[in-house]
């Protein structure tokens, strides 16, 4: 689904912003700064509504399909929480071995089936480009919840919203991305999204997990100052946002290569003594040791708050895409 639908006579409660209503969310590249201002304003409103009343009926009668071909805790359950807090309901498929996919059903056929039961589809799939393929098959909006090493646009939106809520602004900040920058779809999406702001970006990784050159070129072409280094200490004292990622074992074809780099960086309480007092540590999670648990009590550790912000952002996206924001 790629075109917005408009009607002159809207059902009660419907507010259709043509930038969002009926549209797919496949890549951060589809958004401009004004889109983000809208998403973040609605997400902030959602936060207030949840804190005040918990659950409300904005999307009553709407049904979301949550189709996950890859494991997920946060993305999957926060979309469930988002639609349910908005009064809608969900078809949850998070183990495709128990669906007709295991009988060999194609992705387009699966999508056509599920859209006949629901108003929007969230999909996570191991192959880059799969969300776009699903969207091409669907008449209803499709939301990319991670397509292999491709993109994770709703994660980038929640990351940016987290920075805004924690720091009050994104402009003027230095963001340091650390870990698996080659396969990490969250950093791919976030780096692209940050081109809409006045930021500097540092990429810290082992040599074999550097940010893809084409992405560095794309971000550079947008006028963003970038620095690549394997040395965290070289950039930590000037970092405002430390975005840590997991070295993803499941993306390696050669396990020996994974073993060589898996413990390259570990953020500890001692590391934090060398960081700014006003800094936020983000991580899309799950973590497997790259942030020591002793860091969790540091007020700069924002990664658990980041998960919660994700629900507000996904509530905002669902309300906007389904025409009720
Ligand atoms: N951040 C993220 O995508 O987490 P999950 O894999 O648990 O959904």
Number of strand elements = 9
CATH architecture of the largest domain: 3-Layer(aba) Sandwich
CATH topological fold name of the largest domain:
Rossmann fold
SSE-based structural type:
alpha/beta
CATH class of the largest domain equals Alpha Beta
**Global mean pLDDT:** 93
- Name given to the CATH homologous superfamily of the largest domain: Aspartate/ornithine carbamoyltransferase
Distance between the termini: 19 Å
User: Helix amount, in percent?
Assistant: 25-40%
Count the DSSP helices: 10
Cα radius of gyration in angstroms: 20 Å
Beta-strand fraction estimate: 5-15%
Low-confidence stretches: 3-8
What molecules are bound to this protein?
Answer: phosphoric acid mono(formamide)ester
Shape: globular
Give structural notes.
The chain is an alpha/beta fold and 325 residues long. It folds into 2 domains: 28-152 and 310-321, 3-Layer(aba) Sandwich (Rossmann fold), CATH 3.40.50.1370; 153-307, 3-Layer(aba) Sandwich (Rossmann fold). The protein contains 10 helices and 9 strands. It has helices at residues 33-53, 74-85, 107-115, 130-137, 153-167, 185-194, 213-221, 255-261, 269-272, 303-321, and strands spanning 63-68, 89-93, 120-125, 142-147, 174-178, 200-204, 225-229, 241-244, 280-282. A 5-stranded parallel beta sheet has the order 7-6-5-8-9. Strands 2-1-3-4 form a 4-stranded parallel beta sheet, sandwiched between helices. Phosphoric acid mono(formamide)ester binds next to helix 2. Phosphoric acid mono(formamide)ester is lined by residues 72-76, 146, 155, 284-286.
């Amino acid at each position: 689904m790629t075109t917005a639908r408009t009607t002159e006579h809207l059902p009660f409660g419907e507010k259709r912003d043509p930038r969002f209503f009926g549209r797919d969310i496949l890549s951060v590249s589809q958004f401009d700064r004004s889109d983000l201002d809208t998403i973040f304003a609605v997400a902030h409103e959602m936060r207030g509504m949840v804190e005040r009343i918990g659950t409300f009926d904005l999307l009553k009668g709407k049904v979301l399909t949550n189709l996950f071909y890859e494991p997920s805790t946060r993305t999957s359950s926060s979309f469930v929480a988002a639609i349910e807090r908005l009064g809608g309901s969900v078809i949850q498929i998070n183990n495709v071995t128990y669906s007709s996919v295991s009988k060999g059903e194609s992705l387009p056929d699966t999508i056509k089936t599920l859209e006949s039961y629901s108003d929007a589809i969230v999909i996570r799939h191991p192959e880059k480009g799969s969300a776009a393929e699903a969207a091409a098959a669907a008449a209803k909006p499709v939301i990319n919840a991670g397509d292999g090493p491709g993109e994770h646009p709703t994660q980038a939106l929640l990351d940016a919203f987290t920075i805004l809520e924690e720091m009050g602004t994104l402009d003027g900040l230095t963001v340091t991305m650390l870990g698996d920058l080659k396969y990490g779809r969250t950093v791919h999406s976030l780096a692209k999204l940050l081109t809409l702001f006045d930021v500097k970006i540092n990429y810290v990784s082992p040599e074999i997990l550097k940010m893809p050159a084409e992405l560095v070129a794309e971000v550079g072409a947008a006028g963003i100052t970038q620095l690549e280094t394997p040395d965290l200490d070289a950039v930590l004292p000037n970092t405002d946002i430390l975005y840590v990622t997991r070295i993803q074992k499941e993306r390696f074809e050669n396990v020996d290569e994974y073993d060589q780099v898996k413990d390259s960086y570990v953020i500890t309480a001692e590391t934090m003594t060398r960081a700014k007092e006003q800094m936020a540590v983000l991580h899309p999670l799950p973590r497997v040791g790259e942030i020591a648990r002793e860091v969790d009590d540091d007020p700069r550790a924002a990664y658990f708050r980041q998960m919660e912000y994700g629900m507000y952002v996904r509530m905002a996206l669902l309300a906007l895409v389904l025409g009720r924001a």
